[in-house]
Amino acid sequence: MLLVLAALCSIGWKYQQYLEQPWTRDGQVRAQVIQITPRVTGPIVAMHVNDNAEVQSGDTLFEIDPRTYEAALKQAEANLAQAKSKLKKAQDDAKRGKSLHRREPGALSQSTLIKLDNAVEAADAGVMVAKAALEQVSLNLAFTQVKAPADGFVTNLTLRTGSQVVANQPSVALVDRNSFWIEAFFKETDIKDVTAGAKAVVTLMTYPDQPLEARVESIGYGIAHKDGSTGVELLPNVNPNFQWIRLAQRIPVRIKLDKVPDDIQLRVGTSASVMIIKTAQDV
């Protein structure tokens, strides 16, 4: 009898703790996944990383064949030299015309002088265009070296030397190592008193014996609702439900870990349990 009473007391205490400190097993590790997107098109001539490799910001991930862009750079340099030569000729012609006009007024018509000035302006604009083209080509050549924009982990790498990459199409996934958080789903009835900054405890399924201290970073302001969405023949979708059962909706809560020990490796998509501490004596 005493054992039964003790068990009931224990269950009651646990239930009270659950009411005061909401808990869920419906949590997952999340992180920002950067889609590495080449800025130029071409075949890969060198791979500098392997699948699941850890990289630092600025590390070269792979190289695109630069020969096309090197040739374009030489062409742009030649175009700039040609534009500068045209500018110098236009300036010299304008200088000689004005000098002649000063020595022999009326030797050149006013329209001719204006044309000489216009030719200088046009040649000057040509130099600016050539410089811009050279800068663009130089950037394209630099873009053949595809680098990591942040510290992180390369994942699901399928590229190989010889693979063709296309400009502005994602080719590599990079998990930002400094962006991990926990996304936990709590019943709407459990979070009415929860605010950003509340203390939380996270237990990763991968490391069940190492609870981690955390804080509530934010609480979601909305979830998708299927009822009323457009279905077949433009009619609304309405899911059947039981009138005598009213289930609480689950709201996403973003949890920020205070500190992650060196011996724990967070991985996107892995499971986590989260408990939010609401009682004053535990904060």
Automatic annotation (TrEMBL):
<dbReference type="GO" id="GO:0022857">
    <property type="term" value="F:transmembrane transporter activity"/>
</dbReference>
<dbReference type="Pfam" id="PF25876">
    <property type="entry name" value="HH_MFP_RND"/>
</dbReference>
<keyword id="KW-0472">Membrane</keyword>
<dbReference type="InterPro" id="IPR058624">
    <property type="entry name" value="MdtA-like_HH"/>
</dbReference>
<protein>
    <submittedName>
        <fullName>Fusaric acid resistance protein fusE</fullName>
    </submittedName>
</protein>
<comment type="similarity">
    <text>Belongs to the membrane fusion protein (MFP) (TC 8.A.1) family.</text>
</comment>
<feature type="domain" description="Multidrug resistance protein MdtA-like barrel-sandwich hybrid">
    <location>
        <begin position="33"/>
        <end position="175"/>
    </location>
</feature>
<feature type="domain" description="Multidrug resistance protein MdtA-like alpha-helical hairpin">
    <location>
        <begin position="73"/>
        <end position="144"/>
    </location>
</feature>
<keyword id="KW-0812">Transmembrane</keyword>
<dbReference type="InterPro" id="IPR050393">
    <property type="entry name" value="MFP_Efflux_Pump"/>
</dbReference>
<dbReference type="Pfam" id="PF25963">
    <property type="entry name" value="Beta-barrel_AAEA"/>
</dbReference>
<dbReference type="InterPro" id="IPR006143">
    <property type="entry name" value="RND_pump_MFP"/>
</dbReference>
<keyword id="KW-1133">Transmembrane helix</keyword>
<dbReference type="InterPro" id="IPR058634">
    <property type="entry name" value="AaeA-lik-b-barrel"/>
</dbReference>
<dbReference type="Pfam" id="PF25917">
    <property type="entry name" value="BSH_RND"/>
</dbReference>
<feature type="region of interest" description="Disordered">
    <location>
        <begin position="85"/>
        <end position="105"/>
    </location>
</feature>
<dbReference type="InterPro" id="IPR058625">
    <property type="entry name" value="MdtA-like_BSH"/>
</dbReference>
<feature type="domain" description="p-hydroxybenzoic acid efflux pump subunit AaeA-like beta-barrel">
    <location>
        <begin position="179"/>
        <end position="276"/>
    </location>
</feature>
<dbReference type="GO" id="GO:0016020">
    <property type="term" value="C:membrane"/>
</dbReference>
